[in-house]
Amino acid sequence: MSTLSDRLQEEISVRERVGGLSPIDLLDMPEILANIISQMVRRNGMHIDEVARQLGQSVADAQLTMDNLVAKGYVRRVEVNHQVWYKAYFSRKADKNAGIWSLLGEVLNEIS
Question: Which CATH class is domain 19-91?
Answer without folding.
Answer: mainly alpha
